[in-house]
Amino acid sequence: MALKNINPTKTDAWGKLLEQHKLEKNLHLKELKENQPNRKKDFSLRFQDLEVDFSNNRITENTLNLLLELACETHLEDAITKYFSGDKINVTENRAVLHTALRDKTNQNIEVDNENIVPEISKTLQKIEIFTNKVLSGEWKGFTGKPITDVVNIGIGGSDLGPQMVVESLKFYKSHLNIHFVSNIDGDHVQETLKKLNPETTLFLIVSKTFTTQETLTNALTIKKWFLESGSEKDIKYHFAAVSTNLKMVKEFGVAEENIFPMWDWVGGRFSLWSAVGISISLAVGFDNFNQLLSGAHQMDTHFRNTPFNKNIPVVLALISIWYNNFFKTETEVLLPYTEYLKSLAPYLQQAIMESNGKSVDRNGNKVDYQTGNIIWGSTGTNAQHAFIQLLHQGTKLIPADFIGFKESLYGLTEHHQKLMANFYAQIQALSDGKTKEEVHLDMKVNGQFNQIESLLPYKVFEGNKPSNTILFDKLTPQNLGILIAMYEHKIFVQGVIWNIYSYDQFGVELGKELAHKIYNNS
To answer: Domain 8-92+307-433+467-509 in CATH: superfamily?
Structure first.
């Protein structure tokens, strides 16, 4: 069954939220915190190692209750049930949306078209484990009898961004293999990768659902040609594997059948890292860590599926985002992970969020007259503090921020981590509280800058009242990364449901491809 189609702007809650915004739009966070001594406790949620503090947002309890009413009026609970049950909620492509099934640890039946998909998922996971262990142990040999030292993932979009982000994020847990990613059809990108590799010790993973994606196939053929300068056609089976549904074309390419892993049409590309698309992750960090990643995501799935909305982390984060996007008319959200390991998180979530919810037609086929998807951007702290955070503090735009941090470092450099986290908390406080004219005036007097007070004071004032969420884990582990990614996946889902759009197609990707194909053929 499809999702219910409800224009959110026609609900009672939406009208009340418009009135609430008029009442609260000028409230200052500093004032809210001063008047609510327990605000941090009342506006925080915990789940295992994760704490989400949303007290630094321009919301009151009344606002939150109205947002929760909006979730109920748009039948979010019914949508969540259908999401996890295999209903074909991706109506425009007549598909279920079941990336959650890939990490389900309950072994309960999950059916698509009256067929239980769990056995096939388990079989594929077992195949990934066997494949990973063979390569990591050195049992898998190249055509000259040498073990594999390097792995190249050839894919684009979800077949690249997700695995690459996770491999980068879990570098601390790295195996002895060197993992490379080739995505762009730019030939220079391919050549720069190949010049670092030895064909005798390199394994290539071609990841393409249809095996017709122009970028991936072009890159794969270039790499195959390079390989055949050293090896022969019969050696391809030792150096190429594929993740695809198009068995015929993969075999014609030369990949041995036993080296082909399945993909399913009920998994969207940008949510596919949990599937065989994640083989590069398994090879990068070992199967046990890959399995921990899946377990963390499943734990967040369970939280999202079973927790009341007022205590439900993805639901609350989605509602706060809607509050800013649709009522304050903000258009962007910034991600600020305070760890260099998560430097690829923003590009990954740009695809996941903007490809999903960048829609202007609702589920009734009507053009919407309200804002939908957010523009996502960001970088790591403290680098961002020396770059664009100036705009957040003193620019003219209101930009909600997610600060993502970890209580412990992985290498145990305590002084470094204390300084990092001091910056983490300082930025949150500075954005929230700002600095008044009176405070600036006093500081300048104390520092003996009497002659400069009149000329410099306006430039040193910070309005504050800049909203943020604090997303804090104990430590960056595969399990916690799984929790974090799944949290954002479910936030995407909630927003799509409330905005009455289809989050799981991406027709906007197709037009440029079609035109590029025509231009190339006519050139």
So the answer is: Glucose-6-phosphate isomerase like protein; domain 1 (3.40.50.10490)
* DSSP string covering 396-418: SS---EEEEEESS-SS--HHHHH
- pTM above threshold 0.85: yes
Which one from 168, 215, 333, 355 is the annotated catalytic residue?
Answer: 355
Domain with CATH 3.40.50.10490 in the chain: 8-92+307-433+467-509, 118-290
In the residue annotation, 123 being an active-site residue is answered as no
3-state secondary structure 445-464: HHCCCHHHHHHHHHHHCECC
DSSP string, 188-219: HHHHHHHTT--GGGEEEEEE-SSS--HHHHHH
Which of 10, 146, 419, 513 is catalytic? The answer is: 513
- Residue 285 has phi, psi (to 5 degrees) of -125, 0
- With beta carbons less than 8 A apart as the criterion, state whether 246 and 211 touch: yes
So what's the architecture of 118-290 in CATH? Answer: 3-Layer(aba) Sandwich (3.40)
Q: Which pLDDT value is given to residue 292? A: 98
- Tell me if residue 441 is catalytic: no
Q: Which of 386, 415, 438, 454 is catalytic?
A: 386
Query: Are 183 and 223 spatial neighbours (Cβ–Cβ below 8 Å)?
Result: no
Residue 386: active-site member = yes
Pick from 247-251, 280-284, 448-452, 515-519: least confident: 515-519
pLDDT digits (tens, 9 = 90+) for 188-214: 999 999 999 999 999 999 999 889 888
Considering only CA atoms, which of 243, 167, 488, 508 is closest in space to residue 361? 508
d(CA 295, CA 301): 10
With 70 as the cut, is the pLDDT of residue 1 above it? no
Over the stretch 416-446, which tens digit does the pLDDT of each residue have? Answer: 999 999 999 999 999 999 999 999 999 999 9
290 pLDDT higher than 80: yes
Closest among 230, 236, 157, 174 to 197, alpha carbons compared:
230
Show the tokens assigned to 378: 């960001």
CB-based contact 236:227 (threshold 8 Å): yes
Bridge partners (DSSP) of residue 402 are 335, 469
CA distance 342 to 336: 9
Please, what's the b/e burial string for 351-371 (b: 16 or more CB within 10 A of its CB; e: otherwise)?
A: bbbbbbbebeebbeeeebeeb
Q: Are 414 and 421 in contact (CB under 8 A)?
A: no
> What are the tokens at 202?
């390199």
| Nearest of 318, 240, 331 to residue 279 by alpha carbon | 240
pLDDT tens digits along 4-51: 999 999 999 999 999 999 999 999 999 999 999 999 999 999 999 999
Compute the half-sphere exposure of residue 77: CA atoms within 13 Å on the CB side of its CA. Answer: 10
Is the predicted pLDDT of residue 173 greater than 80, yes or no? yes
Closest listed residue to residue 213, CA positions, set 261, 155, 262 = 155
Q: Identify whether the C-beta of residue 224 lies closer than 8 Å to the C-beta of residue 253.
A: yes
